[in-house]
Amino acid sequence: MADDEEIILSELSDDELVLQMHDDLYDGLKDEIEEGTNILLGRGWTPYDVLTKALVAGMKIVGDDFRDGILFVPEVLLSANAMKSGMFILKPLLAETGAPRMGKMVIGTVKGDIHDIGKNLVAMMMEGAGFEVVDLGINNAVEKYLAALDSEKPDILGMSALLTTTMPYMKVVIDTLKEKGMREDYIVLVGGAPLNEEFGRAIGADAYCRDAAVAVETAKTLVSRKHNQLSA
Ligand code: B1M
Q1: Nearest residue CA, atom 29 of ligand 1?
Q2: pLDDT tens digit sequence for 144-189
Q3: With contact defined as beta carbons under 8 Å apart, do 169 and 140 qualify?
Q4: What number of H helices and E strands is found in the chain?
Q5: Under a CB-based contact definition with an 8 Å cutoff, are residues 31 and 78 in contact?
Q6: How far is residue 97's CA from residue 187's CA, in Å, rounded to a whole number?
Q7: Both ends of the chain: CA-CA distance in Å?
Q8: Candidate from 26, 66, 121 with most ligand 1 atoms within 8 A of CB, to mutate
Q9: What value does the mean pLDDT take over residues 1-26?
Q10: For the residues 99-106, what does the mean pLDDT come to?
């Protein structure tokens, strides 16, 4: 297709549209991402497939080029905003699964870290799986987590970190829970691109979650194990 030829998203096949959405996400085109999201939903795609195949896969390309110095912060911010506009459309649909109430989670990105796309995705998927989610947003100091645990009384504390410089803060939070004798009251799940299982174990989390789907499965398993222990 010639460069100056206008692309009509609705005229593209599913595969072409998904590739075009990857390009539009890369270029930070919010309106096009909203339109593409709505078109795929209108064609009967599940919200989960739109999320993973069109949005998350597109963000992966942005992430790789950011890492390689091809894209810079202002461009990535535009991509992130475009991604969020698609997620905004999907959020109520993912939460609408009618799944039975599974438990409650407080989640937030740790102090010093403003990355929230992955954390938002986890929150959306958890809601879709029947969990009540209290989202503390970004840049959370330990006091903020403690206050939320106290007021919300969740089953799970979830923490997200995307920077190698902020991931150690998760240990600060877990150590504080231990000092206060509260650690065993909560299932602590951690996630974020630079983490791994070994790190999760080393800081004393119950589990490291590679992605949002793993977070949901891990949460379900650990919450039902906890409830079984309590009722035994
Ligand atoms: Co940032 N950034 N960034 N950034 N950024 C990274 C993380 C980086 C890896 C890019 C790179 O390759 N260089 C790099 C970190 C390097 C490192 O520490 N080793 C980096 C850097 C360096 C920075 C700045 C320092 C850049 C600068 O200013 N020079 C700066 C830091 C700001 C700060 O936080 N203090 C910065 C800023 C930004 C933007 C603001 C531009 C923007 C964030 C916008 C926003 O979030 N609202 C941004 C973005 C978008 C990225 C990348 C490109 C994409 C992150 C993302 O949204 N991925 C990222 C590159 C990368 O990760 N490859 C990068 C998509 C998302 C769906 O995946 O977040 O991994 P992810 O979440 C997954 C899983 O990790 C997991 O499930 C999610 C869904 O499947 N998960 C959890 C995440 N949290 C979980 C919590 C759980 C469970 C699972 O709890 C139970």
Answers
A1: 73
A2: 999 999 999 999 999 999 999 999 999 999 999 999 999 999 999 9
A3: no
A4: 10, 5
A5: no
A6: 24
A7: 65
A8: 66
A9: 89
A10: 84
Q: What is the pTM of this model?
A: 0.89
Q: H helices of 68-180, where? A: 73-95, 117-128, 142-152, 169-179
Tell me if 106 sits within 8 A of 146, measured CB to CB: no
> 103 is written with which tokens?
């438990």
In angstroms, what is the span from residue 80 Cα to ligand 1's centroid?
10
Query: CB of 109 within 8 A of CB of 116?
Result: yes
Dihedral sign of CA atoms 110, 111, 116, 118 in order: negative
Give me the torsion for CA of 118, 122, 128, 130, rounded to 10°: -170
Pocket of ligand 1, beta carbon within 6 A: 56, 59, 62-63, 66-67, 73, 76-77, 80, 107, 112-119, 121-122, 158-160, 162-164, 189-194, 209, 211-212, 215
